[in-house]
Amino acid sequence: MAANVKTTSRKASRYAVPVVVVGVAVATVGLVPAFANASGPDLPKVTAQQLIEKIAASDTQQLSGTAKISVDLGLPSMATNLLNRGGISGGSADPQDKLAQLAAGTHTFKVAADGPDRQRLTFLDGKDEYSLIHNGDEAWGYDSKSNEAFHEKNAGARAGEKGKEHKTADRLGSSPAQLAEEALKAAGTTTDVSVGDTAQVAGRDAYQLVLKPKASGSTIGSVQIAVDAKNGVPLRFQVLSSKGGKPILDAGFNKIDFAKPAADTFTFTPPKGAKVREGSDASHGDKAQRRMDSLPIPGLDGLTGAGGAGKGETTVLGEGWASVARIDSGSGKGLKDFEGKANEKGAPKEAKQFLDSLGDKVTGKFGSGRVFSTRVVNALITDDGKVYVGAVDKDTLVKTANAGK
Q: Per residue in 56-107, pLDDT tens?
């Protein structure tokens, strides 16, 4: 059954409950057996619009429990290794580093929330622990392995406020609830919205809201949101591939309690001897930029502003699930230049590895180039320095590039 999605006003605090952090999509090994029974519970029938309104009306702000996030984007090993080493910023206690790791593999963590101003997330991967704590205007990140701490004042500042940047609290705020909200905002005339089979998630009866592309060409088969039948809290968020197989992203609870967490859950004092770095450390940002600039990707210098270029220009072609971004680096450097440098004597081995990971040559009205493919994203890198990228299959990507030339 399809439904039109109506815009419903929401209180920001309703979507501040942290369950998992996706940085991305945006989240997996098959977690369905761990979360759902083979036959779902018998629940009263609801329409898609009623279920959307139930999510919007939920005012649950306190919870604690354990959750998992598992991501299988089909990235090449070089990119996966970079993420698992801690992203690009180079600081083991920095939230940016830890959260980047969520873009690949499976991770388990404890979560707690008491409204939009108090949240805690503790990674349980291996014997070492990493915790993120947001309490009012302060945030801490602590890595037990290195005994390093990251501290940030005014952690609640939101992006978009004049003079403000993304803060740790923003990164902690991503959750199945927020993922659901963003998915529903994006659902329009290109999306079928329906109610799927019921399920049990973390021992709770749940409805499942299903979003599917109306047209072909997307690598996304559907988005499925498991919604608590009693209080409307999204308990699990899944992104499924149009080609089947295990989910691309699976983020959700395996245990949850809606009681108010103890106040001391959100307090933190660095252990004796811990090295503490303040979030305002300017050298940190410089190090992140240098590492980003060193990545062997053609045209990246123009997109990131290295060498004073900064002429990147992006145009969106198509609409909805089949939209493609066309990026012109403005650097004057194309794939041919990169291929030449990658094959030079003494070139970094990562450059050759990246080149080898690209697909076959393609040609069209756009010119010629190579297609880089993952389970989710296909990217066409042209010889003249343009990039066409989208969550669409190869044929749709090339067709869109031809039409958008």
A: 888 898 999 999 999 888 766 545 554 455 544 444 677 777 767 777 788 8
DSSP annotation of 400 reads H
d(CA 297, CA 339): 11
Tell me the two tokens of residue 8. 């419903």
Cis upstream peptide for 71 (omega within 30°): no
CATH C-level class of 298-403: alpha beta
Three-class SS of residue 344?
coil
Cis-peptide, bond into residue 26, ω within 30° of zero: yes
DSSP codes, 97-134: HHHHGGGSEEEEEEEEEESTTEEEEEE-SSSS-EEEEE
Can you give the pTM of this predicted structure? Answer: 0.73
Residue with tokens 């940047």: 165
Contacts with 256 (C-beta within 8 Å, 6 or more apart), sequence order: 63, 64, 65, 202, 203, 204, 235
Q: What residues does each domain of the chain span? A: 12-278, 298-403
Is the separation of the CB atoms in 184 and 9 below 8 Å? no
What is the DSSP-derived secondary structure letter of residue 264? G
* CA-wise closest residue to 130 among 21, 26, 281, 285: 21
Closest CA to 169 of 51, 21, 42, 344: 21
Q: What is the DSSP letter of 57?
A: H
CATH of domain 12-278: 2.50.20.10
